[in-house]
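Write out the 3D structure for:
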Amino acid sequence: FYHEQSRPDRDNYVRVNYANIQQGNKDFNNHTVDTLNTSYDYRSIMHYSTDAFSVNGLPTIEPLQPNVTIGQHDNLSSIDIQEVRLFYNCLATGVTLPTTTTTTTGNLTNINDFSLLNMLTLISTNELL
């Protein structure tokens, strides 16, 4: 998973103000990534906020669509959930996660393991996927 503003089509949805970005923060560039055929998601948990890494308090990213909020980190958006399903080949209709007391320890070296753990950590127990 990449940050939403790294998508190759991002310039159709946001303006990046490079002059306001702290030196050394390069994650504002767009990349060739697999978008999983999903639309750009302003509500994605993976989207930077308007002032992320600002050197001067001014916006580093501005949505081109008026009256949208970017950079929320409270929950997964519906498109985030759709992307997790597609990436991990989950059932389209959803399943209920079982209650568990299992903990994970040790080093995660596989980026897919880390991404899955990160996403599952954000989904509350018994939430429908």
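Residues 110-114 have pLDDT under 50 and may be disordered.
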